[in-house]
Design a protein that fits this description.
Layout (H helix, E strand, L loop, with lengths): L1 E4 L2 E4 L1 H10 L7 H11 L3 H11 L6 H6 L18 H7 L1 H18 L8 H6 L6 H20 L5 H21 L3 H9 L1
Antiparallel strand pairs: 1-2
This protein binds zinc ion.
C-alpha cells in the first residue's frame, strides 16, 4: 500500500522491512500482493492471516518478545533461532520438512507444480502462481500458526485434514452456485 502525502510517495514500514528482508525490487507491486488472497479464496480467516503477515503484525516470538509478552524470542519449533516471520514460515528446519511433505503429497495427487516455491512466494503469496498453489500456501501457513499455538510441530496430517475440510466447504459453496466446473478447473490446472 502506497500512501500519497504532500506529493511524497510514502511506503509503509512493513513494506520497507519486507523489501529489505526479501530483497524485493523497487518495482515490487504491493497492490498485487495485498489483492492476491482475495483473488485466491473467499475464506476470511485466510485473508486475515495473510493481512497480518503482510503488515508484520502476526505474533511471531520476535515481535512478542519485543513488546514484552514473551520472555524470549526463540523459535517455537527448533528453540534455537530467533522466531522471525521468515524463520517461522520458511527457514526453520521443521517448517522446511513440513513444506517438503506437503509438496510430496500434493504433487502426485493434483499435479500442481509446487516444486520450487521461493521464500517470497511462501511469505507473501504471488499473483503469478495459480490460485490452487496460493491456497495451499495459505493453508500451510495456517497449519504452522496452529501448531505454534498448540506447542507442536507442523505435520502433514494436520495439513491434509485442513485441506480436505477446505475443499469440502468449497464444493458446498460452488455447487450451491452451480459452478462446480469452475472449482474442478481450478484444481485440475
Ligand atoms: Zn525454528
Amino acid at each position: 500500500m502506497i500512501l500519497f502525502c504532500q506529493n511524497l510517495v510514502l511506503k509503509l514500514k512493513s513494506e520497507t522491512k519486507w523489501s529489505n528482508e526479501l530483497n524485493l525490487p523497487e518495482t515490487f507491486n504491493w497492490n498485487y500482493a495485498y489483492n492476491t488472497p482475495f483473488k485466491t479464496t473467499r475464506n476470511s480467516k485466510l485473508h486475515w492471516l495473510q493481512y497480518r503477515i503482510n503488515h508484520r503484525i502476526l505474533g511471531a516470538n520476535q515481535l512478542l518478545h519485543k513488546i514484552g509478552i514473551k520472555n524470549d524470542n526463540s523459535c517455537s519449533f527448533c528453540n534455537t533461532n530467533t522466531e522471525t516471520l521468515s524463520h517461522l514460515f520458511y527457514e526453520c528446519q521443521y517448517t522446511d520438512t513440513f513444506w517438503m511433505d506437503v509438496k510430496n503429497w500434493i504433487n502426485p495427487v493434483f499435479n500442481i507444480p509446487l516444486l520450487q516455491i521461493t521464500k517470497l512466494e511462501v511469505l507473501l503469496g504471488h499473483r503469478k502462481l495459480s490460485s490452487s498453489v496460493n491456497v495451499i500456501l495459505l493453508l500451510g501457513k495456517k497449519v504452522i500458526m496452529s501448531s505454534k499455538s498448540k506447542r507442536t510441530r507442523p505435520n502433514l496430517n494436520q495439513f491434509i485434514m485442513l485441506f480436505r475440510n477446505y475443499i469440502a466447504c468449497e464444493k458446498f459453496h460452488y455447487s450451491k452456485e452451480g459452478r462446480l466446473d469452475a472449482l474442478m478447473k481450478m484444481w485440475r490446472n
